[in-house]
């Protein structure tokens, strides 16, 4: 019903372009406030509908799924495809580095920045969210490391990862990436991108050798952690049946979830388990978010930061951010360095802190509203998954037209990756079709994506609450603070995407 009402009512970045792929703003047929109120009401109504009709979670983490690995032919095809995609990803990595080093300095005419930041960062991210975690088989650094292990044998890390360190390095690298994307003055240079790819390669392989590949990927690699998070929303999963034997020895955080039936979406347990215990299954979208998994504090903050940074990326293109910069400029300008860069840096640091503070505050309210049946710690580590659909929805609304329009640049670059004037496959003369998506469609899509994402988040939080409380009434009552947060963020997200782009 809510959807019916709705339907009616880095590393481095390429040169600064509209994140929506065009500069125009769609003239809304009704005042923006009507859209904000209608969308907020749709989310609130969905809460009432979900709370009324979904009264039991069956006290387990199961959901409908279909194991396609039961068919030997499909299993064989999947294994062959993973080898092919892995090899292609390695070739693309070397091509990206080489074109960045010796190709043209014009970013939009060089394969490296266009592929890395449009096709990979945006496009692969969407595939991970909607289809499954293809990054497990297309991570070129992991593929190369696995090849080396096949030649010289598997080995554990040279030193043990300090337990107190948790996954804070992954969070630190993610914030560094966000700073490079938004602030670094050389963010549009292919040569700089190639250098950073080389540095990232040595850091990744060094971490894998020093601590073991699974430990490093799940604790130190920001992209592995991020894609693994988004893949929980996807329509596929990898599962290990009877997983206790492997989870107790897993270094990827499975010890947090030994109370669950099986091990889901853990690459380490999947790799170590025998074939008879492996499943590769289809499942409903977002089902993997509401199993009741717990995460560590660092991963929890990583999840919140992922949502905060994409929100800041959108907000930083609006007149509202320009006004904030104008206010802060007299205070920042006397300081050493670029005043604009300093303000952007403050935004990248402070926005995640604000988001985290609000989330922790709401979690405390949820605990009190549950009459203590859920502890604040348990809520913080479990309910963070309910934020994933919001992050995905905002990502879709913010970057879809960027991918569809600017992403077409990859077609001529296939024939001329270095910008040397080649025409290897006859695609150099391809002209970008800017009419593939217009402002009106982008706005309608944004409204639908954002409201749908928030409704799925409401549903996910409700299911998690049902599994952690004793009665339906307590579960519903405990979600009132989360509902207010969802409604507020729905309105804020729509306000951001409705603003004219100033960058």
Q: What characteristic shape results from the CA principal axes?
A: globular
Helix content: 55-70%
Radius of gyration: 23 Å
Q: Strand order across the biggest sheet? A: 1-4-2-3
How is this structure best summarized?
The chain is mainly α.
Could you characterize the architecture of this molecule?
The protein is mostly helical and 503 residues long. The protein has 2 domains: 2-62 and 295-418 and 431-498, no CATH class; 66-289, no CATH class. The protein is built from 21 helices and 4 strands. It has helices at residues 2-8, 32-53, 72-102, 111-130, 135-138, 140-152, 168-182, 190-211, 213-219, 222-231, 244-247, 267-272, 297-315, 319-332, 339-369, 376-382, 388-406, 410-415, 439-468, 472-478, 480-498, and strands at residues 66-67, 236-240, 263-264, 278-282. It has a 4-stranded antiparallel beta sheet. Helix 3 (72-102) runs antiparallel to helix 4 (111-130). The relative contact order is 0.15. Residues 1-25 have low confidence and may be disordered.
């Amino acid at each position: 019903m809510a959807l019916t009402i709705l339907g009616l009512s880095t590393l481095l970045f390429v040169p600064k372009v509209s994140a929506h792929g065009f500069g125009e703003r769609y003239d809304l047929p009704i005042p923006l406030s009507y859209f904000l109120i209608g969308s907020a009401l749709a989310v609130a109504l969905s809460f009432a509908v979900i709370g009324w009709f979904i009264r039991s979670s069956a006290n387990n983490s199961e959901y409908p799924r279909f194991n396609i690995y039961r068919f030997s032919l499909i299993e064989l095809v999947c294994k062959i495809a993973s080898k092919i995609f892995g090899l292609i990803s390695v070739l693309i990595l070397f091509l990206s580095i080489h074109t960045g080093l010796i190709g043209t300095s014009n970013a939009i005419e060089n394969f490296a920045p266009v592929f890395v930041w449009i096709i990979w960062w945006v496009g692969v991210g969407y595939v991970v969210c909607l289809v499954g975690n293809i990054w497990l088989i297309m991570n070129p650094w992991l593929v190369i490391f696995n090849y080396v292990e096949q030649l010289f044998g598997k080995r554990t890390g040279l030193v043990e990862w300090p337990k107190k360190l948790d996954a804070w390095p992954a969070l630190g690298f993610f914030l560094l990436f966000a700073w490079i994307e938004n602030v670094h003055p050389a963010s549009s240079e292919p040569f700089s991108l190639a250098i950073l790819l080389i540095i990232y390669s040595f850091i990744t392989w060094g971490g894998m050798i020093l601590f073991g590949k699974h430990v490093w990927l799940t604790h130190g690699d920001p992209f592995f952690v991020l894609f693994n998070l988004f893949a929980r929303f996807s329509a596929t999963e990898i599962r290990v049946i009877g997983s206790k034997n492997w989870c107790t020895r897993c270094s990827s955080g499975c010890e947090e979830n030994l109370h669950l039936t099986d091990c889901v979406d853990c690459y380490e347990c999947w790799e170590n388990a025998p074939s008879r215990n492996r499943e590769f299954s289809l499942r409903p979208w977002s089902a993997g978010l509401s199993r009741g998994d717990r995460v560590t504090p660092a991963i929890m903050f990583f999840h919140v930061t992922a949502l905060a940074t994409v929100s800041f990326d959108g907000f930083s293109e609006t007149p509202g951010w320009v006004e904030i910069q104008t206010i802060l400029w007299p205070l920042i300008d006397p300081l050493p360095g670029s005043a604009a860069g300093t303000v952007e840096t403050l935004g990248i640091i402070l926005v995640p802190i604000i988001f985290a503070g609000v989330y922790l505050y709401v979690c405390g309210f949820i605990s009190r509203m549950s009459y203590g049946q859920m502890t604040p710690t348990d809520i913080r580590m479990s309910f963070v998954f309910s934020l994933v659909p919001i992050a995905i929805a905002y990502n879709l609304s913010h970057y879809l037209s960027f991918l569809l329009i600017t992403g077409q640049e990859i077609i001529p670059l296939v024939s001329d990756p270095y910008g040397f004037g080649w025409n290897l496959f006859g695609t150099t003369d391809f002209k970008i079709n800017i009419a593939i998506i217009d402002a009106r469609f982008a706005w309608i899509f944004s409204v639908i994506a954002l409201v749908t994402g928030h409704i799925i988040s409401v549903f996910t939080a409700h299911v998690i609450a049902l599994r952690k409380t004793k009665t339906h009434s307590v579960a519903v009552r405990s979600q009132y603070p989360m509902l207010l947060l969802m409604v507020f963020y729905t309105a804020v997200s729509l306000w951001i995407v409705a603003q004219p782009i100033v960058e």
